[in-house]
Amino acid sequence: MKPFLRRLLLFLPVALVGYVLLLCLFGDLGWVRTAVTRMGEEGHLNSRVKDIRHYHNVDILFLGSSHCYRTFDTRFFAAHGYTSFNLGSSNQTPVQTYVLLSRYLDSLNPKQVIFEVHPDIMRNDGVESAVNLLCNTPLTPQATRMAFSLHNMKVFNTWLYAVYSQKVCHRLERFHEDTLIRAYRYIPGGFCEVDTNEFVRKRYPPTTLTIAPRQLRALRQCIQLFRDRHIPYTLVEIQDAYQLRRSFTNHPWFEQQMSALGPYHYQILPMVDTVHFFNSNHLDKPGIQLYNQHLLAYLDAHPITPSPQNPKEP
Amino acid sequence: MLFNSIEFIIFLPITFLIYWLLRRQLRWQNAFVVAASYLFYGWWDWRFLLLIAFTSLCSYFSGLLLGRQTHPARRRWVLWGNILINLLILCLFKYYDFFAQSFADAFLHGRADRLLLHLVLPVGISFYTFQALSYSIDVYRRSLPPSRNLVAFLAYVSFFPQLVAGPIERATSLLPQFQQPRRFSRPLAVDGLRQMLWGFFKKMVLADSCALYVDQIFAHPDWYNGATLLLAAVLFTLQIYGDFSGYSDIAIGCAKLFGIRLRRNFDLPYFSRDIAEFWRRWHISLTTWFRDYIYIPLGGSRVSRPRVVLNTFVIFLVSGLWHGANWTFLAWGAYHALLFLPLILLGRNRRHTDVVAAGRPLPSLRELGQMLLTFFLAVMGWVLFRADSIRQAIDYYRHMFSHLFNGAPMVTAPIDAWVLGLSVLILLLVEWSNRGQEHEFSRQPRSLILRWGRYVLLLFMIGAYMVTNEMPFIYFQF
Predict the structure, then answer these.
(1) B412: pLDDT confidence band, cut at 50, 70 and 90?
(2) Model pTM above 0.90
(3) Domain range summary for chain B, segments of one domain joined by +
């Protein structure tokens, strides 16, 4: 028994070292695409976190998933007198939002936060977004904690590769992300613009919405960060195309859950799928224009309540 | 608890260490096996522990009664009583809703709301029920003395590595192992770890990668061309093999860590040269169970030709039904019966009992053709098995063959095609080179560096290319 255990204990570090070496080698060769998403992929998070250094004391901070960074056009809000930054990223769930907020909330020092919440994101495991975050933003102890809390091998591999890539090879600082990735163009301020409209009608099976407890916990933690800093926030849900929207069998339940967490805004606007949507859950240019006008009207109708505890407010 | 879960990674070493610390106290060691097995099973739903305990106790006490009784008629009553109780439980949980729905479809215009019970199917119920039944039948046949050691018997029924998806063990081989002290064997434990590693590769890399593609295609077969449907059918063939034989390898390897030997459940079935050979190599513990406890008592092949036909159909239909309460499984059984019948009627069902291409590195063209044909027939059968309904299966076949040459297969699912290709290649190479060995990953180089290199490479493949969502094993539902 003892020789067996001794040999096993000897094998484990050998296996670990071999594993890490193979991961770095295969990662560099691009042979582990399924395991390690590399820098500069869809979502422009890399450009966004480099861009964020130039933004302080913004009027609005937008947070959320691709619905967020593809919808809230910071140029539109600037034209109407609001400075803003869009910190959305691909599939960003509250678990990753919390990591980003812990890093950037104080330097951005926003007057208010628009937090985009989507039913698909609230039941998401957060793996894709974690991978994106680990590859494209500096590795911090908090990001490491987040990576380990997900208990997911893909995230763990990405974390390992990020340690090698950032701490050993210093690639993140040297990396320059293209402004145009596939059809998406990064606009300074965090928004991503897309010119095409390839809307294809799809059928979706009926789906009963759920909320992952981990995401709900993280969302509450994010809200606590706002409350600690007396920053007003609004949870906003952007409408989906008709077929996807109607596949959610219990959307009122979701609305109820979100409303319990604070100000929540969800309104179905008169949009036509083929005209206002790029795909089932993303708006195209006319849709973005329409939605941002609506949000602007909402913000104007709901000015930030002055609070004596909040030094940022007039 | 799933083998491919973090809980199991913690559970296994702790169980292993405590188990061997108790090696001098057999009774306590067996009691610990029962406790660990119940924890393993109860992790999923503790309420069903009562069911497994009840099944075990029924078989244990029926065994004691069978041991005491000498009167043949009374012995038969005891045996049938136990069989009836076990089958009633199995039918209630597994088949009641299916038959109630079929009855309602036939006579009540499908209105079955009041008839259905919507019971949750306890994981592995078919496996442990069959294992418990085999004990009673063997005691009845006097192939085995009744066990008076309740703890050892409970360990036999609930031994966690094979509790939820087999191999279905026989009391004659497993029970005696719990009745005598075990000694730790280093080569056996090392071989067990090796077999587990291979099982994890088959399940987590090969089967789960295939599943991503297969699930997408089978969800909407009418959206794809024939070549895509054929590819999905082939990938399901690999998925079910990787999934189930992977589970069996993990189970057998895990049992070896505890000094217990379980029977082989898969013996390279896709290298079979005809369907009869396929069934000698696929899910061996179940097919031999049916052979020994149903087919041979019915007369087997040593009866009149019409009875042979009947026996063959009975055995395959029961086997189909064992897999699940759906007409598709019955159709799958009937399909294999039709393929098997000509071989048995012509007396050619035992032509291929040896290892294919024994002593040669490659098969002959004839053998290759036979293997490909058998593989193709198996693929066609798996479509029935995978489909949700007979209607879907028919539509699938029709669409596949009518649009077969309508373009290349579409790869739209989130799979990395080369990872899948590499996994299949590794599977083929490793399994082909280990024909005739105890298991598919037995043969290893003598050099420590090469051996460990292979292990590390396989571990890397698992870690880097596994599908990261915990995917349950297909056979859990049976």
Answers:
(1) low
(2) no
(3) 6-183, 187-273+352-477
Interface test with A, best of B182, B256, B465 (most A CBs within 10 A): B465
What DSSP string describes B294-351? IITTTTTTSS-HHHHHHHHHHHHHHHHHHH-SSHHHHHHHHHHHHHHHHHHHTT-TTS
Task: Report the candidate in B199, B207, B165 with the shortest Cα–Cα distance to residue B440.
Answer: B199
A184-187 and A191-194 beta bridge pairing:
antiparallel
> Does some domain include residue A23?
no
Task: Flag whether A6 is in a domain.
Answer: no
Look at residue B471 in the predicted model and tell me its pLDDT: 59
Rounded to the nearest 10°, the torsion over CA B151, B153, B158, B162 is 130
Show which of residues 97-126 on chain A sit within 8 Å of chain B, judged by CB atoms: 125
The residue of chain B nearest to residue A154, with distances taken between CA atoms, is: B468
Answer whether B419 sits within 8 Å of A151, measured CB to CB: no
Query: What residues of B are in contact with residue A3 (Cβ under 8 Å)?
Result: 186
Residue with tokens 């309508």: B406
Do the chains contact at B456 and A1, CB–CB below 8 Å?
no
pLDDT reading at B77 higher than 70 = yes
In a domain, A219, yes or no: yes
B303 against A35, higher pLDDT: B303
Of A11, A22, A151, the CB nearest to B460: A22
Residue B256 to residue B195: CA distance in whole angstroms: 9
Element holding A62 (H helix, E strand): strand A60-63
pLDDT-derived band at A37, boundaries 50, 70, 90: low
A138 touches chain B (CB under 8 A): no
Question: Is residue A309 predicted with pLDDT exceeding 80?
Answer: no
Residue A132's CB: how many other CB atoms inside 10 A? 23
> What range does the domain containing A208 cover?
43-299
Please list the active-site residues of B. 323
B460, B465, B467, B469, best to mutate vs chain A, most A CBs in 10 Å: B460
Q: CB contact, 8 Å: B190 with chain A?
A: yes
Domain count, chain A: 1
Q: In this structure, what is the dihedral angle of CA atoms A121, A37, B426, B375, given to the nearest 10 degrees?
A: 40
Residue of chain B minimizing CA distance to A124: B469
ipTM: 0.81
Say if A1 falls within a structural domain: no
> What one-letter code names the amino acid at B12?
L
What are the two backbone dihedrals, phi and then psi, of residue B121, each rounded to the nearest 5 degrees?
A: -80, 120
Residues of chain A neighbouring B193 (CB-CB closer than 8 A): 8
- pLDDT tens digits for B308-324? 889 889 999 999 988 88
Residue % of chain A over a pLDDT of 70: 94
pLDDT band, very low/low/confident/very high, at B281 (cuts 50, 70, 90): very high
The CATH number that applies at residue A181 is: 3.40.50.1110
Q: Per residue in B413-435, pLDDT tens?
A: 455 677 888 889 999 999 998 88
Distance from the first to the final alpha carbon of chain A = 73
Tens digits of residue pLDDT in B326-361: 889 999 999 999 999 999 888 888 888 888 888 888
Of B190, B452, B464, the CB nearest to A32: B464
Q: Does the CB of A1 have a partner CB in chain B at under 8 Å?
A: yes
Structure tokens at A67: 């619905």
Query: Has residue B208 got a pLDDT over 70?
Result: yes
Of A11, A23, A32, which is closest to B452 when you measure between CB atoms? A11
What confidence score (pLDDT) does residue B335 get? 95
Residue of B nearest to A202 (CA): B223
